[in-house]
Amino acid sequence: MKLRNMIYASLFAAIVGALGILPPFTLPISPVPITAQTLGVMLAGAILGARRGGLSLGIFVALVAVGIPLLAGGRGGFGVLLGPSGGYILSWPIAAFVIGYLVEKYWHKMNVARFILFNFLGGILLVYACGISYLSFVTGIPWTTAAFQALIYVPGDVTKAVIAGITAMQIKKAYPLIKKPTELQKTA
């Protein structure tokens, strides 16, 4: 792996960690707090692409697992991954990979609407599917109850998908980090 790829992956792991400085907002209806860190997940996938985006969140989750308090509220440690929020957090590398894969696949057709759509698919639907299922399993509540509780997160996450989409489009125009498919073939 090139040094540049390692730096980008590390940078976005740090960005997700920095978004954890914003305090979590906990609601009485759900044990999972509202945080800004899913914005970083969407940005990593949309800006870095599949491999680097997934790697950056893989690094982040590994750092959290060994106890570094990078999650909102200063949380960290393997116990957090086994708790109610674990499914959401563990899905982040997969979400960044999926977002990045879709962006790479449609690179030549990318616009703000597609960035937002891909952020919604990977950063919301996929994360919710994993997080709700894990929450239901860990807490023993019915899946439908966990899904109903998660509806409170939708407005904020849709806002994050829009912010990430607009930001990714601006970066694509100014300094694209993902190579176009034709550029990949020339360098291979």
Automatic annotation (TrEMBL):
The chain crosses the membrane at residues 7-26, 32-50, 57-74, 86-103, 115-138, 150-171. InterPro entries: BioY. Keywords: Cell membrane, Membrane, Transmembrane, Transmembrane helix, Transport. Pfam families: BioY. This is Biotin transporter. The lineage of its organism: Bacteria, Bacillati, Bacillota, Bacilli, Bacillales. It is a multi-pass membrane protein. PANTHER family: BIOTIN TRANSPORTER BIOY, BIOTIN TRANSPORTER BIOY-RELATED. Gene3D superfamilies: 1.10.1760.20. Belongs to the BioY family. Its main location: membrane. It is found in: Cell membrane. The keyword Magnesium does not apply.
